UniProtKB/TrEMBL annotation:
Keyword Signal among UniProt keywords: yes
Sorted UniProt keywords: Plasmid, Signal
Gene source species: Pseudosulfitobacter pseudonitzschiae
Residues of the signal peptide: 1-24
Protein name: Regulator
Domain of life, source organism: Bacteria
Length: 209
């Protein structure tokens, strides 16, 4: 996702939390299958996780076996699926309100490519899997505010094909407030702005360079 400071403050973001064991069961199912539910682009030839926003919010295997329908629906769900905390229609009374906080009025299916990243977290012993969503995209959310140093120097994607160097002013577990610092031209004159927390890049991490 391209960032366009300072307009990130206009983009809502939510964190979905799932039981790692429930997600692991869906991954195991997907990997046990040899055929898979198609996505919007057509046939799929490998295991994956699908996020369904409808009757609750849940992750499910894309694998097809004797008990799996080829039709993915947002109207039906199964208690065995991996539901997001607080958005489980089998357990949570206010699940519809919680779903709307994360997705507003949007319902549908996200055909994700997060399986390998999620498996890495499960293998590390994570008890919960957190996914970040802006209502249109889904990504694995690994770090917490406590992992970062207030006043520390980081980089964030600039939206111009490179990065801005920034000082971290404040952070919570969904976003950070940063101030440009040490950049060329007049970029340092920008007012502090908000970016998703996982957009912060350690200076030695060149993933966005």
């Amino acid at each position: 996702m391209r960032l366009r400071p300072p307009f990130m403050k206009d983009i809502p973001m939510a964190i979905l939390k799932f039981s790692a064991s429930a997600v692991a069961a869906q991954i195991t199912h997907a990997r046990s299958c040899s055929t898979f539910l198609p996505n919007w682009n057509g046939p799929v030839d490998k295991p994956a996780l699908i996020l369904i926003v409808g009757n609750g919010v849940h992750l499910r295997s894309n694998g097809i076996d004797g008990s799996t329908t080829r039709i993915v629906t947002t109207e039906q769900s199964d208690p065995s699926f991996a539901f997001a905390n607080g958005v489980d229609p089998f357990r949570d009374r206010d699940w519809m309100a919680q779903r709307q906080i994360a997705f507003r009025d949007l319902t549908g299916q996200f055909y994700t490519d997060i399986l390998d990243d999620v498996q890495t977290l499960i293998d590390r012993g994570q008890g919960a899997i957190r996914l970040a969503t802006d209502g249109h995209s889904i990504r694995v959310f690994v770090r917490r505010a406590s992992d970062f140093l207030i006043g520390g120097t980081y980089e964030v994607p600039s939206g111009l094909g490179g990065t801005f160097r920034v000082v971290l002013k404040d952070a919570c577990d969904t976003f950070a407030i940063v101030q440009n610092y040490g950049n060329c031209e007049d970029f340092d004159a920008m007012q502090p702005y908000r970016v998703p927390l996982d957009a912060l890049i350690e200076l030695e991490d060149r993933r966005a360079a």
